Amino acid sequence: MSRPQLPEHEFTLALDGIDPEMPDKDVDALYEAGCDDATIHVQDGRVYVTFCRKAPTRLDALLSAIRQIESSGTGARVVRVATCELVTQAEIARRIGRQRATVHQYIKGKRGPGGFPPPACILPENTPLWHWCDVAQWLYENDMLPRQVWEEAITESVVNTWLQHREQHRRKESSELARQVETSFPCCE
Predict the structure, then answer these.
(1) pTM of the model
(2) Which residues lie across from 48 on neighbouring strands?
């Protein structure tokens, strides 16, 4: 009897602390650490590692890749899952395979159940940006997005929040600011 196949998860991790020239010794160390299911590339001075990893869940895939990279002996640190968390109306439409006009109607409440999440920010050109995680949740709750896509959005958002928090504490100045902010607000329950 054959074992069930594990699902493949595709994702890209952005690294810091590693030479963007990617000497052979670093490439070899990453592969020897278990990143043999990945492709390494450099763009604008940043090293990225793109995986196609088999694992029970996306979280398992992400965490195992982060552990392997950071234990490779290269000095590499994962700073984020390189996914675009802020999305435009056009990007929302592209991700869900709908027309931009349809997404505009969702946003304005003229189509769908209403209650579309508000933008996270607005660029100077009056271009609103939404958190993909918030949009994915609204779409999933309204039967417009598969559960798997919604879960991937949440997983990547949580992992990125943790990685960002870790980076903040790594920097001495940011770490002190974080402590001041944390002591100013009651803890979430």
Answers:
(1) 0.85
(2) 14, 41
